[in-house]
Amino acid sequence: MNERIAVFIDGSNLYFKLRSPYVDIKHLIKFDYKGLIKWLAQDRDLVHLGYYVGVVRAEKDNKRNQVLRKQQQRLFSHLTCPAQNFIIKKGYILGNDGIYHEKGVDVQLSVDLLVGAYEDSYDVAIVISSDTDLLPAIKKVKILGKKIIYVGFSFLPSLALQKHADFSRLLIKEDLLPFEFHS
Question: Does domain 4-179 have CATH number 2.30.30.240?
């Protein structure tokens, strides 16, 4: 029997890593996320593709915010199209004095990671995030007999997630180029 893979992507974390000067992927709205996941899964059965992200709210008099919201909606359409087939789990973004923070995203990702392990809906979890808030859930998932693959980036890995994962994959720009949209 082929191993069942569940994928948990911290969308904001992935977005900012792909946009960083070290990777600089253009056209993230057309990036082949599922192609990347299939490459990482190595022909194992994909049973869950979760993308977890805070939603940009529409602010009436904020033009930049309206542009960001429109871009995010286009990304959501791309991720949920049949070719990509992701489930988007939405948190929210809380602003305080011009500084914005995601809320509820790590909790949703952790809950889905744990529920899937308890319900035996996957054998291996691929976690694409560098957020150490996920460590308690990851530790429990491992106690429940599931494997964790941490996927991060070579230029800014999470040493704590590497330490607690069964396997780590640190991506470099050349790994990602085949999945970039080319017009």
Answer: no
